[in-house]
Amino acid sequence: MRTFEVVLVGMVVVFAVLILLSVCIKIYSAIVSRISSRKNGSGNNDNPVKKNVSETTVVNPSPVLSQPQQGLNPEVIAVIAAAIAASMGGSGSDIKVRSIRRIGHTTPIWNVAGRNEYILTRL
């Protein structure tokens, strides 16, 4: 009977601390959002990325996908544009792909070597 009491007290303590932690996180996020809205000067919480896209779109009557760049076919460009639109949460009608460049690896060489070794052990 003593073990049941210990287990019950332990579970109550753990869940009480978890609830307290979640309340603290919600309070902290409310404070941070209130401070950031004051710094922006407006009370709305619109996505700033969407604002930048609509401001930087250039009206260009020429088709964007007229020339594949460096061996990229139009399907790959369409998939990349769709991924960008999906990550921004919009329809993608404001997005125009001007160029696609491969970014070099920013991971250390030991990380790449370890990843390759792990993949080769799974084959």
How would you sum up this structure, described in words?
There is one protein chain. The protein is mostly helical and 123 residues long. The chain folds into two domains: 1-45; 52-123, no CATH class. 63% of the residues lie in helices and 0% in strands. It is built from four helices and no strands. The longest helix is centred in the first third of the chain and has 39 residues, at 2-40. The protein starts with a helix and ends with a helix. The model is unreliable at 50-66 (pLDDT under 50).
Observed structural traits:
single chain; 123 residues; mainly alpha; 2 domains; 4 helices; 0% strand
Derived from helix and strand composition plus strand pairing, the structural class reads mainly alpha
Number of helices: 4
How many domains? 2
Rg measurement, Å: 25 Å
Order of helices and strands: HHHH
Helix content: 55-70%
Q: Termini, distance in Å?
A: 53 Å
Strand content: under 5%
Taking the sheet with the most strands, its summary is: none
Uncertain segments are 50-66
Q: Would you tell me the overall average pLDDT?
A: 78
The coarse overall form would be: flat
Number of strands: 0
SSE inventory with pairings:
Elements: H1 2-40, H2 48-56, H3 74-88, H4 109-122
